[in-house]
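Exercise 7. Given the encoded structure of a 445-residue chain, write a plausible sequence.
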């Protein structure tokens, strides 16, 4: 049984690559208003081919190949593409300036290429690619929140692989008959089912007949996780934890991740020492207070760890539930937070092993005490090391900061559990690259 929609990444990648190559030829043509000689085109294609590899990486960071981003795009494709290509042209300019080995200095053509490549890739993605596949009619069977959210999201998305033509409630009198009638009426070849519901599982006793007719089945829970990047908390119980959370299954990953933490954090920490005197002087000049603070956080296995930071507020607050009206972010602190420079000392916590580069955000003990009482299985997130950046920081729009926010934290937990169950070096690299993008675009994490 298929468990998720297969992404069209390869098709999009090949189309983007062909568009980049064609854009180079068109740019050379527009520069002289005549077809470029084959030798001239090849002399440009060689160095540009190296750039294509980097540019595709930028597209990946921008979310242009991510299945959930392609389907549930939060902003216009044109905006994302323009930002990505502008960044790519800047990379190309630096490339040709610092590596003058190819005998060309395409200053003018880079500006032409920015416009041409943007137009060609946009045309490919908006006009041509959608014609290669059209949304399939699908029937959803289930009564859970996940099924309802999936149906709304797929029907509202511009580039969804399916449209939900009918949502069948398992409480109907003749569930089997209603399902069979819907499949025939809408000529459905895709069924999204809540297999955790015993009523739904029972109705597919003769599932072989559906498969013989070409009907494909998708698990609603797995599809929900893939599209939204979070776990449905109502399904989290002892059985779910036993099935999905295991340290033994990640033993090799944990070792490799620790190695990567040291390899990245140690040189980064040493390099960051250059900025320490300037940050310290700025903090001292503003109010004369301490430069560093150390705050207690809850780490792996619920152990208390102390994390150093450059002070960004008027005082060091250790109690999440305390009155904070007189504790303000300083002017220097605002800049430090915007650039994330206040967290530079935490690179040494990564080297020491209290933190990882990637993981759930570490919380104050007072907050953890409250959330553990209010949110079932909250402590599950403490089975792994907290991190400087994480999945929830990227995709949870309503994450709480200073103050106890139970409902926002409950939603944030769904993202933390998604990372906990899907963690891998590939996912960590994805989070790291997207975090860099957010820092460069000053959108914060």
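Solution.
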């Amino acid at each position: 049984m298929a468990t998720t929609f297969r992404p069209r990444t390869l098709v999009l990648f090949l189309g983007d690559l062909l568009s980049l190559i064609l854009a180079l030829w068109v740019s050379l043509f527009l520069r002289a208003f005549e077809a470029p000689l084959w030798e001239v085109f090849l002399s440009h294609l060689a160095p540009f081919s190296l750039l294509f590899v980097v540019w595709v990486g930028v597209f990946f960071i921008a979310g242009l190949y991510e299945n959930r981003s392609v389907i549930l795009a939060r902003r216009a494709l044109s905006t994302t593409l323009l930002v990505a290509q502008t960044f790519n042209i800047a990379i190309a300019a630096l490339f040709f300036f610092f590596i003058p080995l190819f005998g060309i200095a395409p200053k003018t053509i880079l500006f032409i290429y920015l416009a041409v490549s943007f137009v060609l890739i946009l045309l490919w993605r908006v006009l041509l690619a959608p014609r290669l596949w059209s949304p399939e009619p699908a029937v959803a069977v289930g009564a859970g929140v996940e099924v309802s959210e999936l149906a709304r999201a797929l029907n509202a998305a511009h580039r969804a692989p399916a449209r939900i033509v009918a949502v069948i409630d398992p409480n109907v009198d003749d569930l089997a008959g209603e399902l069979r009638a819907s499949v025939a009426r809408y000529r459905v070849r895709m069924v999204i089912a809540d297999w955790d519901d015993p009523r739904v599982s029972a109705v597919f006793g003769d599932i072989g007949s559906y498969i013989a007719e070409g009907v494909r089945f998708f698990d609603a829970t797995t599809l929900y996780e893939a599209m939204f990047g979070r776990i449905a908390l109502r399904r989290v119980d002892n059985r779910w934890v036993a099935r999905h959370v295991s340290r033994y299954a990640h033993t090799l990953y944990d070792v490799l991740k620790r190695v990567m933490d040291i390899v990245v954090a140690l040189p980064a920490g040493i390099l960051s020492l250059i900025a320490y005197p300037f940050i310290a002087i700025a903090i001292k000049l503003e109010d004369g207070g301490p430069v560093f603070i150390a705050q207690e956080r809850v780490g792996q296995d619920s152990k208390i760890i102390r994390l150093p930071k450059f002070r960004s507020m008027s005082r060091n607050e250790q109690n999440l539930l305390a009155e904070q009206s007189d504790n303000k972010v300083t002017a220097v602190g605002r800049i430090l937070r915007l650039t994330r420079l206040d967290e530079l000392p935490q690179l040494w916590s990564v080297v020491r092993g209290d933190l990882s580069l990637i993981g759930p955000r570490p919380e104050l003990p007072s907050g953890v005490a409250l959330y553990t009482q209010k949110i079932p299985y909250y402590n599950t997130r403490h089975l792994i090391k907290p991190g400087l950046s994480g999945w929830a920081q990227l995709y949870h729009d309503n994450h709480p900061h200073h103050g106890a926010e139970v409902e926002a934290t409950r939603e944030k937990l769904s993202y933390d559990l998604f990372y906990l169950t899907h963690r891998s070096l590939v996912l960590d690299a994805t989070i790291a690259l997207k975090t860099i993008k957010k820092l460069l675009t000053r959108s914060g994490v």
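Remark. Strands lie at 136-141, 162-168, 190-193, 216-219, 292-298, 304-310, 356-358, 387-389. Students should compare their own answers with the one above.
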